[in-house]
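CORE FACILITY INTAKE
Project code: CF-77B
Contact: R.S. (postdoc)
Sample description: multi-component assembly, two entities in total
Requested service: structural model of the whole complex
Turnaround: standard
Below are the sequence entries exactly as provided by the requester. Do not edit them.
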Amino acid sequence: MSVDQDYDDIPGTYVFDAQQSRRGYHLNMFCMSLRHAGNRDAFKADEAKYLDRFPMSEDQRRAVLNREWNEMLRLGGNVYYTSKLAATDGLTFQDLAGLMTGMERDDYRAMMVAGGRPIAGNRSKSEWNDG
Amino acid sequence: MAEIIAGAAMSHVPAIGVAIDQGNTGDDYWKPLFDGFEKSRQWIADLKPDVVIVVYNDHATAFSLELIPTFALGCAAEYQIADEGWGARPVPAVKGQPELAWHIAQSVILDEFDLTIVNDMEVDHGLTVPLSLMFGQPDAWPCPVVPLCVNVVQYPPPTGNRCYNLGKAIRKAVQSLDKDLRVVIFGTGGMSHQLQAERAGLINAEFDNQFLDDLANNPKKAAAIPHVEYLREAGSEGIELVMWHVMRGALDDDAVEIHRHYHVPASNTAVGHIIFENKR
């Protein structure tokens, strides 16, 4: 049973709580396996076959194969784990963060250099819906 | 008698480690950040602590979802540098201080802080980037380290208040060791940043500067910040700031702030840094 949490109202954010951790266990453990160079090579050689080692849901498999980074988070992924998949692809953490915002790489970098995404207008889902 | 003489807090962004390792600290992008640590490196070189306790978090490196200790204290003689997916950082292995670490474990567990004791653990950028920021690029780190690893990846992390009180218990533990050791404690992580999803890139300089003020002047107020406020105001990964309260709790209430630095950005993150010394 899912209980409303005080952080549910924060927009564009998936808090890695008990519910998400239970949902994403095998997805995250797949990502964790990529910490080892031999596993990274095996994954790159045949992604679908490598994923068979992990009892993930069909949705999770598809999100991994299609590199749907936000979908992975919705399905229980945690960014410190999914970043290991990004690293396997040769992406930096900043590249990954930018991809999840839907911004172009250079635009995201420029936003950070200019002080980052402001807090004003980004505290509550209601502020996003009104926009 | 052993004593904690000073504390410092600093962010531990992996890209800072990459900039140091690749010799880019003088670039336009990085120079303003590293300039703020020049005084700090001189300060700690003059201070010559016998041990540093580093409060940090593991980023799905030594610990995965298989095992999630809320507080894990490193009691080993040595810690190897982890490969986090990009290869291991080219920095020296970290020497431990088992005598002090085991003493802290025994003392704080009997003080009702039920730490996990760790004898074999690789350390990631969470621990090594602060060492690089403070000690530069030596062939060997100048002093042994006691790692205290705090879970901030799986929600919920320990509360700020719990961290603050653990700091006090660590201080008591250190003071009860009958050995002349001058100890410095680092709190690491933060400041505001969000690495995930559509709101990634969030920075809140107002929150961060208020946090630095409160940490210095009203640490109990800072320790009382609820988790939802970190998540909302400082970003989902800004909740790492709870670790700074362990450091502050381990110092005297009237410890003196001697240095502060704040810079945006390092990659996706606001970098904060503050140093305190206990009065003599």
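Facility notes:
- Chain B has ten helices and ten strands.
- Chain B touches chain A through 45 residues (CB under 8 Å).
Invoice: internal transfer
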